[in-house]
Design a protein that fits this description.
membrane, mainly alpha, transmembrane helix
Length: 208
């Protein structure tokens, strides 16, 4: 049991990487107020937790029933992530206005950001979903182990939320110029991460 808990904790921490998500959170929420960032952080964390819990319970049978392989899921996540990185590199995410006539559109934007790319694929991405399904499989129906797995997942997502809520302080420290530089640099990093997702998916699909 102890070995399982340690393995699950290390795996979920490494795969989700709460600390590494902080600069990415700042980059994709450029132009949002502190209150809007908090709203996005809470919503993204709740969505990611729900997705991981769902896949931990019924993920493998669901994908098998739909005829979807994990490599295909990884490739799809990589392509979607690349679209976001493209916007970041060319500064399109900073072109946001907050006047009254765009209030409805802005609310729609906040909901979209929380779902994609924060909840999916950055927090509950192919790697995290795969790890969740594998760890749930290793539990072999043991309620105690499954409970420990879900508790660990909850703690890791909670740590992501804490990191997100503290990210605004980093944003104020960076300033406008620092944020602009960080957004574009991280856009390149995200693009590389997206390409790596696709490469890993293709390699697994063809047994390379």
């Amino acid at each position: 049991m102890l070995d399982y808990v340690i393995s699950a904790a290390v795996t979920m921490l490494v795969v989700i990487d709460p600390i590494g998500l902080a600069p990415l959170f700042l980059a994709v929420t450029t132009g949002l107020s502190a209150e809007e960032r908090r709203h996005v952080a809470w919503r993204a964390s709740a969505i990611a937790l729900a997705i991981l819990a769902l896949f931990g319970l019924i993920g493998a049978p669901l994908l098998a029933a739909l005829g979807i392989t994990l490599p295909a899921f990884r490739i799809a996540g990589g392509l979607l992530l690349f679209a976001i990185s493209f916007e970041m590199v060319f500064g399109r995410r900073s072109e946001r206005k907050s006047d009254a006539t765009e209030a409805a559109m802005r609310e729609h934007l906040l909901h979209n950001l929380a779902v994609f790319p924060l909840a999916i694929p950055l927090m509950a991405g192919p790697g995290a979903i795969t790890a969740m399904m594998l760890l749930a499989g290793e539990a072999r129906g043991d309620i105690t182990r499954l409970g420990a797995l879900f508790a660990i997942t909850l703690l890791v997502i909670a740590s992501c939320l804490v990191v997100y809520l503290a990210a605004d302080r980093v944003n104020r420290w960076l300033g406008i110029t620092g944020n602009a530089i960080l957004t574009r640099l991280l856009g390149v990093v995200l693009a590389a991460l997206a390409v790596q997702f696709v490469i890993d998916g293709v390699k697994t699909s063809f047994g390379l």
